[in-house]
Amino acid sequence: MVAAMAILAMLLSTEVARAEQPTRTVVELNDxxxxxxxxxxxxxxxxxxxxxxTWNRCAKEGDFERATYSYLRSLYVSKDYLGKRxxxxxxxxxxxxxxxxxxxxxxxxxxxxxxxxFEITDYLVAGDNxxxxxxxxxxxSDILPTSTDADLAGxxxxxxxxxxxxxxxxxxxxxxxxxxxxxxxxxxxxxxxxIVHVYLTTADNAxxxxxxxxxxxxGYEVNSRTxxxxxxxxxxxxxxxxxxxxxxxxxxxxxxxxxxxVELLEDGLCCDRVTVKTGLRSISxxxxxxxxxxxxxxxxxxxxxxxxxxxxxxxxxxAALREDYARIKDMGANAIRSLWGPHxxxxxxxxxxxxxxxxxxxxxTRSPLSLADVCYYPTVAFRDNxxxxxxxIIAQNYNHPSVVMWGLFSxxxxxxxxxxxxxxxxxxxxxKLDSSRLTVGCSNAxxxxxxxxxxxxxxxxxxxxxxxxxxxxxxxxxLASNKLWGQLRYGVCxxxxxxxxxxxERVERSVRGERRLPERRQxxxxxxxxxxxxxxxxxxxVWLDTMFDYASSRRAYGINHSGLVNYDHREAKDAYYLxxxxxxxxxxxxxxxxxxxxxxxxxxxxxxxxxxxxxxxxLMCGDDTLKVRSVxxxxxxxxSVVVRGDVExxxxxxxxxxxxxxxxRVSSDATR
Length: 672
Hints:
alpha+beta, Jelly Rolls, Immunoglobulin-like, TIM Barrel, 8-stranded parallel barrel, 6-stranded antiparallel beta sheet, 8 helices, 41 strands, globular
């Protein structure tokens, strides 16, 4: 084993180059990791992997593994580099990670969706060093979430960085953030004020100062200030007030980003420098229950985004994440909900750039599939872990202007121990850490839990388990007329499972635990819900649950099929094109539904078509033009289409710029 480790160190060693003053050095450590299970820890036969990595890459029924694995890697440190301070920053590990350097325990992190950072300076020697990270996705009652519909895939599913800094530095240890948080206070088009919080890690009592430069979107310096570091406060950092006259504000329409460059000066010389970007904007909800950015109303059209994909598990590449984001944009959504926890920082860089709004959840949630699950434990360990994960989520995403709300809970149960008072504590903490953003919860229950956060989103399925899908219109009217609920600032969330190659002659009610999930049922729910909800006009936001199918080992086939796009993230379902027709204002849509339902029993069929506003569809069967009528915004239907044998139906717009085709077959002796 010793010989094997020596060979491993030689093959995988990374030379850490000496940093040029005054910059820090960041080196990716994503290649050359050896992964070992608990059973083969003393084996030389385990494989090598590159990060990001998970041991659950594909969702297969009965194939989900909860386990503990160790990741090993060598790290070569030159003698010249021993005068620096070295940190390891992990983008994410599900759900518990323990770090050892040269066999010595460094620390551990509890939580699967946030980054974490350890200083390893005192654990290293000149030459070869060995890193070992023990990662577990096994169930724990002291790490959120303790109940979830989504699989926690396990592994070092995001990248790892080695950060080298001088002895005195802007700290990578402040909840693994950039060490600079730009707090916004007064924001309008005449004036912007706030405080830049700079968190430091110092090795001596040198004479330190901080220099702040603010650069506008055009590249011009608009403010600068130098302050001495006297008494340092770990809670608030060094506070540097700032003001920007006549600021260029950030909004979905104007994506203006300012650079905040901070230099740490030691005896007047720069020893460390960090630059962050942010946008200046205000967030509010007005009396009309509309979300406002800089006082301007915005109709929020949002989608929930899970964290995994077929072939990747949760170990998404940046390229895959960009593909997913492009698909969301193509549908016309203007908001994303990061379900259960934050995504890669790359996603929020893109939403900052494009003006897409973001809601980031913390992992206080409950699976709808198991009554035996406990989503809240009133223990010190559970409660503290929730507080810590919320601090990490806020600190790590603080400077992204597109992030406009912090999600504190999702579909939790109020039975059992008092979760309401815990959510109240989380809400207080969120406002203390960040007074510029709103808090939000997602609820499918009545009671006090709906009156805690600034915003509430009702997860609705009224008329679905009983009644009729159009009963959602009755619910909307009751909600609007209720004086108590009228105090709330509410949005709505809904969704239904559907599998593209599951067919049904008619839309039938879902049955708990059934394995047959016809797409027509999912499509029908979305058709009726969006038509009624849009007509009501009472919600600050509409949130679809979800954009893509995701792994859920508790469900049939190992997948939650509520997505508008399949688990491969490529094949879209009919409901996707409904929202594309409604929401995408730049590229028109013309889509015939139920294309995969080729073999049908009844000679009398109706054909549904989705098309964008301004597109008038024609339905052709050979040279014949069939009558179509509008049944709801973006929804058209051809009634009483007689089909015998194998028939091709072609939808076109009047200008013939768009076309879609479906082939269906009905037995020649079928009844009408």
